[in-house]
Amino acid sequence: MKIVRRLYEELKNEEVEIKDVWLGLHWTAVESMYVGMAHTYKTDSKIQVENAGSFTGLDARKVIKMALSKEPLNASVGIAAINSLIKPIGIEESVNPYIEKESKGKTICIIGRFPFNDEMRKIAKKTYILEFEPLPGELPSDACEEVVPKADINIITATTLINGTIDHLLEISSGKNIVLGPSTPMHPILFEYGIDVLAGVRVVDKMLLQRAIVQGVKKFKQLGGTKPISLYKSEYKKRKF
User: Which CATH number fits domain 96-203+219-236: 3.40.50.11590, 3.40.50.620, 1.20.950.20, 1.10.10.10?
Assistant: First the structure.
């Protein structure tokens, strides 16, 4: 949890109250300084979410500490809270065209199940897809030891921040690393850990987002109130955000 702990240390002195929390079937959002999101990471265990029913008015520093929890559902709330304290900087654009352009003729490894996975098989020279519960044509997550070091580009779901696997994936990578999804913290300190591109979201209408979350929307494209944003390590110092 090296990266998550670093984010916690960077933000733990922010004196901000939690305004609201929406913990949905597929997505979680926390409102404090901004509105931050995370994937709702479910497990088979029956747990009581920390601070359930009493988030509003809590010191955000208490809630971001949940990101360090080994219980993924608590960590989901914690990552969303971390994202609610980070200004969502970046270019308002989807990272997908960049991924397609960079992947042509390359070996790529995709950690996570994204809508573009099938298309990437046609574009890249070789495509590995890793999942905890692999479908036909996918590899189990423990195959990362073999395929991640081979990849020219690793496309990593930000859910790995919640389940604690991102540190190891970056350590064994020798290629370019792109972290994407609504759980992505848009904080430039992540560039210090071998990440080249951060692709997350900016919430532009919290009421639309709230409705989508509480009404069980799963697909990112159906999430109202958000815009995709991308932050590139190579461009970050050249631009003013």
Answer: 3.40.50.11590
Q: How far is CA 25 from the centre of its chain?
A: 17
CA gap 66, 91 in Å, rounded: 29
Domain boundaries, the chain: 2-84, 96-203+219-236
Kindly give the interhelix angle for 72-84 and 2-11, rounded to the nearest 10 degrees: 40
Degrees to nearest 5, angle at CA 105 with 101 and 109: 80
Q: Report how far residue 41's alpha carbon sits from residue 53's, in angstroms, rounded to the nearest whole number.
A: 19
Kindly report, residue by residue over 20-40, the tens digit of the pLDDT. 999 999 999 999 999 999 999
Any idea of the CA torsion for 211, 217, 219, 221, to the nearest 10 degrees?
Answer: -20
- Entry pTM: 0.95
